[in-house]
Amino acid sequence: MPHDHAHDPDHAHAVLPSEPALRVKALETLLTEKGLVDPAALDEIIDSYQDKIGPKNGAKVIARAWTDPAFKAALLADGTAAVSEMGFYGRQGEHVTVVENTPEVHNMVVCTLCSCYPWPLLGIPPAWYKSDAYRARAVREPRAVLAEFGVTLLPTQKVRVWDSTAEMRYLVLPMRPEGTEGMSAAELAPLVSRDAMVGTGIARGPKP
Fold first, then answer.
1. Is 84 assigned a catalytic role?
2. Least C-beta-crowded within 10 Å: which of 92, 109, 125, 145?
């Protein structure tokens, strides 16, 4: 079920600058000065998640769910086990719950406390996901936020907002686009964007 965070003023992020980019730089500088982080190793990790992995792993999961009913059932029943079976696991990827978009319900994900996010599936969280504005407005006015991302829902379609935590990270299973019948999982994966798996977008239709 969707749940809310109670904001903790003693949370580690509270002592860092409010701007996400500044917070990251402050942490990097502090850890480097203390000799706890090798900048070259850090750059390699960032490159891996941002450029090599990105949302490609998550897209493979979604495409398989669209084409394999048994896998889809397993994914919705136990997301962690299902994505681990595909080899996608590790730090920031524990405790994954998958929620399915339908014609009746549209799901979107936020972390109201900080920026909990399934890195092994989606790569590094974008700046907007970590911003104070998104974290606050996604809960208060989700339809307005979705509209700003270009997602317009029917009045009859409900919006369900899921609050990610370190104990539970959410992945949205978007609806399969029309006109993709007969396409393979490999052909479908490029239609799945990061935003669609956060719920701030929808899967792209096939090119004419």
1. no
2. 92
Residue 164 among the catalytic residues: no
Query: Which one of the listed residues 18, 48, 115, 184 is annotated catalytic?
Result: 115
Structure token digits, residue 38: 């090798």
Residue 115 bears catalytic tag? yes
Closest CA to 161 of 199, 108, 105: 108
Share of the chain above pLDDT 90, in %: 56
Catalytic residue among 114, 131, 164, 184: 114
**Whole-structure pTM value:** 0.75
Q: Looking at the structure, give the CATH architecture of the domain made up of residues 54-198.
A: Alpha-Beta Complex (3.90)
For 133, 137, 192, the CA distances from 23, given in Å and listed in that order, are 16, 21, 30
